């Protein structure tokens, strides 16, 4: 039995003015940010895990970084964004947040960037960037995660496209969905991680590092 949208929405946590402003901007300018049910679930998982450090792949306008930092009042977050305009907007929003001193934005392609801010170990990694590159992101940044740490990966459902046969997927998105399916098969068989899928938001994958 599927849950109704009304029932799901009843669990959504209220947001303050800055977050509402960011949500409105994202909707008006077609900027992908996490669905509300997804970010609430992610934050609750993070509260349980209690990471001291988080690396985020895909800052966009800084929405999820701010939400995670507010959920964990002492966490330090490093977040990477390749789009210069979005990175600059993220910095502006973050500067207005209560978590400004705990979030570092790095501009650059996450597959190429080499910055001293990420030359360290992290308790958690949150991946929410180019969906067709998830395995490459994972292979690059998973070694930075401490044993017992978690990699959280959003948009695994891809608005229902991941559940379709490739022939049913729009042609322009087939490579991305094929890569996403291949990544799913790869990570579920990976000996170093225990993975689970949560059907919340647009689909959240949790990979616990052994």
UniProtKB/TrEMBL annotation:
Reactions catalysed, semicolon-separated, are: 5-hydroxyuridine(34) in tRNA + S-adenosyl-L-methionine = 5-methoxyuridine(34) in tRNA + S-adenosyl-L-homocysteine + H(+)
What's one Pfam family the UniProt record gives for this protein? Methyltransf_3
Residues recorded as binding Mg(2+), renumbered to this chain, are 128, 154-155
Alphabetical UniProt keywords:
Magnesium, Metal-binding, Methyltransferase, S-adenosyl-L-methionine, Transferase, tRNA processing
Question: Which segments of the protein form a coiled coil according to its record?
Answer: none
Entry-linked InterPro entries: Cation-dep_OMT, SAM-dependent_MTases_sf, SAM_O-MeTrfase, TrmR_methyltr
Record: residues binding S-adenosyl-L-methionine: 34, 64, 81, 109-110, 128
| Top-level taxon | Bacteria
Record has Transferase as a keyword: yes
Subunit info here reads: Homodimer.
Q: What does this protein do?
A: Catalyzes the methylation of 5-hydroxyuridine (ho5U) to form 5-methoxyuridine (mo5U) at position 34 in tRNAs.
Q: Which family does it belong to?
A: Belongs to the class I-like SAM-binding methyltransferase superfamily. Cation-dependent O-methyltransferase family.
Q: What is this protein called?
A: tRNA 5-hydroxyuridine methyltransferase
Give the species. Answer: Lysinibacillus piscis
